[in-house]
Structures are given as structure tokens and as C-alpha cells.
């Protein structure tokens, strides 16, 4: 799965490897190639469009990290967008407050529902639950027997109509299974429902009837990852026909192009919760969007590198900031501005400050910085001469007026800024004093 897509993406990334920076034309070309790669992997068009729009706006926008080279930046953003279309966070089962939790499986015939029922039961059992499998697929010959075999392998009980009574009522079986679960002390009920080769109204009605009779906590839509472009219409039909709360991808071990996997979350609006990767009971796991994305990119190493580069860059910035904070008497208007600007970039400045005595007030002050204020502050400080920035004491009345006019603000704004700066400067001095780090620290720099 995803081999072709992975290969295409690697090629695209390699083609920008040697670039020092990306022009708009480079970005457009890269975006076009990624678009094609996704389409060829059978990803649904609306999903591709959303993906590319997001990618372009992020790459062209201000979100350019100085820590990364152009290739790393693109890989990082593609990775994050892949995680996003795969659902972001890993989604866990919503267990009922009052057991049994009812999990209903829906999907086309052959999607892998019955197999999945067995796998899920086995997985839940290992997780400390005591599941009951319910054979409400009375349509397909052998489905009941298949479920019994799976249940035995998984070491769980199965609730099924008597053998040979294929004409039984699946809704009744599903309803009765809840009482059976309660009687037998089972905390999760997994209901296997009938599928058809294509979507039809009778099947949807039956699924709705089972749903209404059992009020599932989860309705999982099982979809064959090899299904290709049909994924969208099938997923929409189940979303609208039965209502689903999560998706299970089956047959991820196949060599299909993987488009269904990348489209289904966007189309259904529901998260992929589990993935099935083979015919054995153990070929099954919780679905992790981030792991799947890095598998598609096939760039585990580079992703680690990106993380490390960013962390190192952040650490360097923090180090510089800490240094400045410690040298209270060096603290100038330039530093004040730089500090405010970095607050936006690196939220965790609060962490540095937290480590310092007397920091609470400082933190409050830093948190008050909003973007407009920051623009204003920048304009004001930029209108000062180098001497004024270095030594704010020289800024008298006439200089204040000049600065106000130069930066298009009022004298009052300039006064306020200088007052805030003085406060900050005082706090710096206090902190330096408390830490026993007088002017002497400068010599050790
Ligand atoms: P149902 O009609 O939805 O209940 O589908 P089944 O559970 O009977 O599965 C249909 C076929 O797909 C069976 O031959 C299964 O062994 C096979 N199958 C199910 N899940 C997987 C999987 O994850 N990988 C592979 N390779 N085969 C699977």
C-alpha cells in the first residue's frame, strides 16, 4: 500500500533538495506534482484540492522556519497535512458509561467485517474486556459459521441463531444479544451485520433497524482499502444511510494505491479508528494518523531530523533570551522589541521565565502582547535613533513628539511604551539581583 505514492513524493522532494530557497514558481511546480501524485494514488478530488490549497498557503505564507532548509520545510508541511487528512489525533473507542458498549459493524460484503469482528474481539479481550460477538449477518451463506470459527480462535463467545435457521431475523438477534450480554456479564457487544456487493436500500434499512434496536455507542464503517475511487460514493452512502461514528480500513496489506485511506476521513467526517492488515487475528491495530503519514512519506529519518533541528533552533533562541534576561543592565529597547517578537514565535518563553525568581509579573506583562500592540511597538522603536534605543533616558518631550509623528502614533502611545519598557527593565534588574548575578556576568559572556 502507498508504495507508488511514497516513491513519487520522494522524487518530488529530491528535486528541491539542492535549492537554497523556493521561489513562487518552485512552490507552484512542487504543488502541481504533489497534486498529480495524490490523484494517481486514487485520492478523491475534493480531498486533493483541499490538501493542495492548504499546502500552498502554508508554504507561501509566513510560516517559514529558519531552522529548516526548503526540502525539510515542504516535507514537514506535507507530513502535517497528511496527518490532518488522516484524522489528526488517534481516536479511541467511546465506551458506554453503562455496559455493555455496543459496537455495530457496517460495510459492503467482502469489506472484511466478519474478519474484523473477530480481530476486534481478540484485541478487546487482550485489553481486559469480555466481548460478545453477535452474528447478525444472516444474508451471506457461512457468515455465521465464519464468525463462530473466529470467535473460537479469539477465545470469545458468540451469539447466533441456531445453525440452519438462516431465515432468522437479524434485528431480533441483535436486540436479544444485548440481554444475553447482560446475563453473561459481557461488557462489549460487537454486531456483525450483512453487506451487499453494492449499496441497496434494503440493506441500509436493515442496518438502520439494527441500529435503532441496539443504539450502538459506535457504528464502525469497514472499508476495503483496495476499493479505489468507489470509496467516496460507498462512504457517503453509509454516512447518510446509517450514520457512522468511525471507520475501519481493511486490507491495508494489499498493494492498492491507497486513495481510499486518504479520502475516507474527509468524505465521512469521521476518524479512522482501526486498520486491518492481513487475514490473521493479530493483523490488526489502532490507527495512528501520524505513523501512517510518516510511513507514506517513507522518511522517518528526515522527520526525526526536522524535529531535532527545530528543537535545537528553539533551544538556541531560548538560550539567547535567557542570557539577555540575566544581563539586566544591558536590557535595551531593541531587546524589548526582540523579546516581544519572539513571544509570538516561541510560546514556551513562559517556560524560561517560570524558572526565574520573581517571574510571575514579567510573565503577565509578556502575555499582554497582542499583534496590534506589537505592530505599534515595532513602529515606535523603529522611529527612534540608535542612541535613543540604547539609552532611553535621552528621550525627552521633543524627541517623543518626533517619534510619535514618525511612527504615526500619539505622544501618549510613546509614553506608554516607555513606561512599559521601564517596568520591564526594572524587573530585569530585580531578577538579576535576586539571582546574585550583578554586572559581573558580562565578563563571563
Ligand atoms: P465481510 O463480507 O465484510 O464480512 O468480509 P470478510 O470478513 O468475510 O472478508 C472478506 C475476505 O477478505 C476474506 O477472504 C478475508 O479473509 C479477507 N480479509 C479480511 N480482512 C483482510 C485484511 O485485512 N487483509 C487481507 N489480505 N484480507 C482480508
TrEMBL record:
Domain of life: Bacteria
Principal location: cytoplasm
Cell compartment(s), UniProt: Cytoplasm
Record's keyword terms, sorted: Cytoplasm, GTP-binding, Hydrolase, Nucleotide-binding, Ribonucleoprotein, RNA-binding, Signal recognition particle
CDD domains: SRP_G
Residue intervals of the SRP54-type proteins GTP-binding domain: 271-284
Catalyses which reaction(s): GTP + H2O = GDP + phosphate + H(+)
InterPro entries associated with the record: AAA+_ATPase, P-loop_NTPase, Signal_recog_part_SRP54_M_sf, Signal_recog_particl_SRP54_hlx, Signal_recog_particle_SRP54_M, SRP, SRP54, SRP54_GTPase_dom
Subunit text: Part of the signal recognition particle protein translocation system, which is composed of SRP and FtsY.
Similarity field: Belongs to the GTP-binding SRP family. SRP54 subfamily.
Stated role: Involved in targeting and insertion of nascent membrane proteins into the cytoplasmic membrane. Binds to the hydrophobic signal sequence of the ribosome-nascent chain (RNC) as it emerges from the ribosomes. The SRP-RNC complex is then targeted to the cytoplasmic membrane where it interacts with the SRP receptor FtsY.
Protein name as it appears in the record: Signal recognition particle protein
Organism for this UniProt entry: Salininema proteolyticum
UniProt gene name: ffh
Amino acid at each position: 500500500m502507498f508504495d507508488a505514492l511514497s516513491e513519487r513524493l520522494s522524487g518530488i522532494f529530491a528535486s528541491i533538495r539542492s535549492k537554497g530557497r523556493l521561489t513562487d514558481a518552485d512552490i507552484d511546480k512542487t504543488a502541481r506534482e504533489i497534486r498529480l501524485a495524490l490523484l494517481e494514488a486514487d485520492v478523491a478530488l475534493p480531498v486533493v484540492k483541499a490538501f493542495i490549497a492548504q499546502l500552498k498557503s502554508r508554504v507561501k505564507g509566513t510560516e517559514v522556519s529558519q531552522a529548516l532548509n526548503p526540502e525539510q520545510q515542504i516535507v514537514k508541511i506535507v507530513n502535517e497535512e497528511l496527518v490532518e487528512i488522516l484524522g489528526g489525533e488517534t481516536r479511541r473507542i467511546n465506551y458506554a458509561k453503562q455496559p455493555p458498549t455496543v459496537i455495530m459493524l457496517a460495510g459492503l460484503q467482502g469489506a472484511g467485517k466478519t474478519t474484523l469482528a473477530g480481530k476486534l474481539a481478540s484485541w478487546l479481550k487482550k485489553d481486559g474486556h469480555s466481548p460478545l460477538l453477535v452474528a447478525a449477518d444472516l444474508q451471506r451463506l457461512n457468515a455465521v459459521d465464519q464468525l463462530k470459527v473466529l470467535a473460537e480462535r479469539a477465545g470469545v463467545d458468540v451469539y447466533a441463531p441456531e445453525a440452519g435457521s438462516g431465515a432468522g431475523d437479524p434485528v431480533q438477534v441483535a436486540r436479544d444479544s444485548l440481554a444475553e450480554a447482560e446475563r453473561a456479564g459481557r461488557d462489549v457487544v460487537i454486531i456483525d451485520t450483512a453487506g451487499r456487493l453494492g449499496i441497496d436500500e434494503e440493506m441500509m434499512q436493515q442496518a438502520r433497524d439494527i441500529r435503532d434496536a441496539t443504539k450502538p455507542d459506535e457504528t464502525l464503517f469497514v472499508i476495503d482499502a483496495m476499493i479505489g475511487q468507489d470509496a467516496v460514493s460507498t462512504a457517503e452512502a453509509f454516512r447518510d444511510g446509517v450514520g457512522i461514528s468511525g471507520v475501519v480500513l481493511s486490507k491495508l496489506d494489499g498493494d492498492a494505491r491507497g486513495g481510499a485511506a486518504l479520502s475516507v476521513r474527509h468524505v465521512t467526517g469521521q476518524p479512522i479508528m482501526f486498520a486491518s492488515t492481513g487475514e490473521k487475528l493479530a493483523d490488526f491495530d489502532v490507527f495512528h494518523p501520524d505513523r501512517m503519514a510518516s510511513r507514506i512519506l517513507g522518511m522517518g529519518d528526515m522527520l526525526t531530523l526536522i524535529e531535532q533541528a527545530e528543537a535545537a533552533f528553539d533551544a538556541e533562541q531560548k538560550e539567547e533570551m535567557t542570557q539577555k534576561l540575566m544581563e539586566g543592565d544591558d536590557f535595551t529597547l531593541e531587546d524589548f522589541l526582540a523579546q516581544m517578537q519572539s513571544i509570538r514565535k516561541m510560546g514556551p518563553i513562559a517556560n524560561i521565565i517560570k524558572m526565574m525568581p520573581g517571574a510571575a509579573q514579567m510573565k503577565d506583562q509578556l502575555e499582554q502582547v497582542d499583534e496590534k500592540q506589537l505592530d505599534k511597538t515595532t513602529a515606535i522603536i523603529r522611529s527612534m535613533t540608535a542612541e535613543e534605543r540604547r539609552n532611553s533616558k535621552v528621550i525627552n518631550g521633543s524627541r517623543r513628539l518626533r517619534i510619535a509623528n514618525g511612527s504615526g502614533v500619539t505622544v501618549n502611545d510613546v509614553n506608554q511604551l516607555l513606561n512599559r519598557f521601564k517596568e520591564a527593565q526594572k524587573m530585569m534588574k530585580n531578577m538579576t539581583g535576586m539571582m546574585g548575578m550583578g554586572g559581573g556576568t558580562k565578563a563571563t559572556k
